[in-house]
Amino acid sequence: RAPPRASSSRRPTTRRVRAPPPRRDASASATESTAAESTTAAEEAPVARSLEFMVEMACGKCVAKVEHALAHVPGIDAVAATLSTNSVRVVTATASTDAIVAAIERAGFNCRLIGQGDVGAFGEELARRLGTNLRTLRQSLAAVAEFKGSAYGHGSIAGVVRFVAADERNTLIEGGLRGLTPFATYAMTVRAYGDTTRGLETVGEVYDAADDGDDDDSERPSSENDAQPAAGDLGTLVADANGEVTIVSRVVDARLKAWDIIGRSLAVVEQGGGGGGEDGTSTGAAAVLARSAGVGENLKRVCDCDGTVIWESSPDDFTPVVAKKKLVTTVVEKKSA
């Protein structure tokens, strides 16, 4: 007997099969990988800064010679020499200030660094958020710490360390020191205070700015229990066989702003030392972080105070009279011995 026929009203059942995921194309994977690598490279790329130099140029040929000399300095992105103001503006991410000055002087021209930081990159909105005016902000985009040896209580340490705001987020450090202990390791930190009357004893703890999300700009002393280093912790330096070190231009902690550190101090302390004596000679030294002019803000060639021409000045012109007497006394004593 034949089985009964299925009702025509009954719909046949179906099984939905999920299609397998498409295979990743090798070229697409390579593209994504390249994009990721490009993003990482962009984040790690050095940040450019603007520098301005006073250069003693007399004619158009001088301008051409200066520009030609700087064309051979690695790391320079742009050069603009102006004869009427005797100024040369340089944009670079990696070239040191000393290398630029040396190249210009080798070409036969007197040269002085007179400004750093592109003031045009900072506007009214940032000034308002910082609770200041635009003029004051643009005068606070660069800071410099100058170590001048024993005449200033810096022991044997001499040199210059510069800070400059490249933009609202990035602050750069660059410079060089000499007179260090050969092969020794030094900790470099921004300190809370600019009181260097007793060297390292009076400059306070390592400076630490408030987080960006905080409502105020108060600072707190660094602590071993902090989750991250203090903003003023700039890492370590290792002196070479001659007791010298070059600080290659790099971005510092995002919490450290040029306008916040002016008036504080920069300390360089040999690791393993006990904090240093009153004159800063035992393990390190501290120098005040002073305001430095921005690009386009310091084009004068003659000092209004005493009429000194910029080319005629020397580091000794800024040594206190008392310190000069100490130096003379030391020299006389050595000759007598």
Automatic annotation (TrEMBL):
Cofactor: Cu(2+)
Gene Ontology biological process: superoxide metabolic process
InterPro entries in UniProt: HMA_dom, HMA_dom_sf, SOD-like_Cu/Zn_dom_sf, SOD_Cu/Zn_/chaperone, SOD_Cu_Zn_dom
Biased composition (Acidic residues): 208-218
Gene Ontology molecular function, alphabetical: copper ion binding
Superkingdom classification of source: Eukaryota
Pfam families (UniProt xref): HMA, Sod_Cu
Compositional bias per record (Low complexity), positions renumbered to this chain: 1-11, 27-43
CDD domains: HMA
Region span, Disordered: 1-43, 207-235
Residue span(s) of domain HMA: 48-112
SUPFAM superfamilies the record matches: Cu,Zn superoxide dismutase-like, HMA, heavy metal-associated domain
Family classification: In the C-terminal section; belongs to the Cu-Zn superoxide dismutase family.
Protein name: Superoxide dismutase copper chaperone
